[in-house]
Each structure stands twice: as C-alpha cells, then as structure tokens.
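REVIEWER CHECKLIST
Item 1: Sequence provided? yes
Item 2: Single chain? yes
Item 3: Sequence as submitted:
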Amino acid sequence: MKSQISFLLLAASVAFADPPEAIQRVTLDDRVVFSVPVATNRVTTISFPGPISAIDAVGVTSDGKSAGQFQLAHTKGSSFLSVRALARKAATNLNIRWNKRTYVFEIVESDTPVLALNLEDRAAQEAPQPAPLVTPARLLALLDKAKAFPLLKQQQPDAVADAEARTFGDKPQVTDFNDYEIRIEEVFRFNPEDTLVFHVTLRNKSDREIRYLPESFMVRAGNRLYYQSISDAPGVLPPRAASMVYFAITGTPDGGRNELSLKNEFTVLLTRLAPQSALPKPDTNSPPVSHEEKP
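Item 4: Structure as written out by the authors:
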C-alpha cells in the first residue's frame, strides 16, 4: 500500500511536466498531492463539487497588500477559490477540507498556469446514469432524421434541436482492411436518446463480392467498444463498388450512458462472412461461419 501511495504522489508531482492545458478536469483523491501552476498576471480558479469547509495555507494573503507569496480569494460557504502568485519562483501548499476529507495542493508560480481546475467527486463518477430506453421505432426515426439532417436543419429546426452533427467532408476517418475500407462520412448525436448515428461508406477494392452481417457494426472510441442498436445495411458489397450505410449505437454495453462526444476519433468495425466458396455444405445445426475484421 505504501508503494502505491508513493507512486500516486510521484505521478501527481510530475503531472504538469509538459505545458498544461489551461482548463483541467481532475478526479478528487485525498491520497494525491495536486501540483497547480499559477501566474503573477493571471488568476487560477479551483472548483470543488460542493462548499469548501476550510482552507489552511502558509505565505498566503487575502488582500494582496499584506506580506505573502500568493493572493487567495474565497467566500465562506462557496465551492471555489481563486489564487495568483505575488512573487517569482514562489511555492506553497493549500490544504482544503471538503466532504470530511483533506485535499492537498502544491501551488507553484509558473509562466504556463492552469487557469481553471475543476474537481470531480469519484463517488459520483462511479454511479453512471442508466442509458435511456429507446424503442426500435424510435431508433428508426433517428436514422431517418440523420439521413434528412441538412433539410430538417433548414426547414424544421425544432425537429433536430437536441441533435449535433459532425461532417468530415474531404477529410473522412478511414479504416483500411486491405480488400475493403470503411469511411466515416458523418456522425450525429441525439442527446436525449444518448444515441450516435453513423453515416459510413463501405468500399470494396477487390474483384470478389464481400458479405458481412448487417447487425454486426461496432465502434471503437478510445479503448472501448460500442455495439450497434440498429442499422440500415444490405449485408453485401459488390466487387469494385461502394455502399452507403447508416447505423446507430445507444448507451454502453453495460447499460450506462455513453455520453460520447463527436470530437472523438472513431473506428468502425464489422463481422465479415467467409466467401461462399469457402463455406462447408449447409448444416442446419451449425451457425454461419464468420470472423471479425480488425484494423
């Protein structure tokens, strides 16, 4: 246990070795020292999930006129505080009480400050919201909305008011499987249904017909796989031809909300059927022969 805590402390100490992003979102952990760079000519705001109980610090002033290396502003009962450096190379620590625990922050003067540090409660993260119940009829309606999105956006904007769209244009996301490729043309997010609709083009680069399971589409985002909830796909790709396909993913495989942003890098996968010539004689007791293509 001691070595694990030491590793966490070391990780927190080097977390900002590279120039940090101006806005950070971090999960609270009372075993970690959070290193927060602040500037003399900028204000850094640290926000908690709820009201702060107490703040302990050394070398900190609240009015900027008294002696101190840092100026701190906090209103009693509020859930945030603001701090800036008053001297070059200044350093101190803030011990902040929240929810009956103490969290330690190492504050250091820097030319590349974090301007906002938003802290999240680990307990809240561990209780994901369940995915909404979306009927097959509703999923079909979402596919239709995605297909007609530009027209609806122009003529009936209320119909897609809760939807977002990302169009790739001349820079689509393409996954190459040697004899065929999957090209992501557009992605739509319907937030109330926690559903993403993908418009993709399948292109057969070979002289042989390619068959696949229409119900097998899946999406990789980061290190997670999301399986389709519905698709509109023919299941066959003629030689040297392209096919337009729409499919959707809803929630996560474990029943939670996926909350996937359209800014993610997506990879589309499917299960391809073996060529007809490679199939054995029909056996009504055996399932179709298939394999999953991966990039």
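Item 5: Key structural point noted by reviewer: The longest strand covers residues 180-190.
Item 6: Recommendation: ____
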